[in-house]
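Support request, please re-run this one:
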Amino acid sequence: MISTDTLRLRAMTRADLPLFVNWLNDPEVIKGLMHYVPISLEDEEAWYESMRKRPREEHPLMIEVCTTDDWEPIGNCSLMDIDWRVRQAEFGIVIGAKQHWNRGFGTSALKLLLQHGFHTLNLNRIYLRVHATNPRAIRSYEKAGFIREGILRQAYYQNGAYVDVILMSVLRSEWEESGDADSLAKDKGSSA
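Re-run finished. Output below.
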């Protein structure tokens, strides 16, 4: 488990799948994702079985926040397509529990996963793709140290229009220089 006092990343389980079916069938949630067709529980179960065959480092992690009584699942994040020779991976995230949007949980989860990627997996570069029409996500990524590398022009089609996709990345040296690595290490409950 990767955690702070208020947020943790844990392994996904089969019991989490109904949450994802609800989240990934919500038009507001999928607006910023590369996901465009409805899914069923059976679809999600098939995805889960195929995901379990991938390397454990690429399994999505459930994002949970500490509530007064327990831990509440709000989304997931992952490092995908890890290239061990180049030491890079692609980052993905979804906050499906809309009542937790705009509260900084996505940025916090991203920073925890960056710590894991750089300090546990020894990656050098973590990159992502984001729709140019998703300013909330772009701000979150910039807060975590990501830099815009370029634009994939009209690389996605959504709601009858082509959308540019921004390519962003952060290097381990940049992330360590930003102070985020030190601030997470000082968090009393932080572990990897």
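The domain at 2-186 is CATH 3.40.630.30 (Aminopeptidase). The beta strands are 2-3, 7-11, 61-66, 71-83, 88-95, 125-131, 147-158, 161-171.
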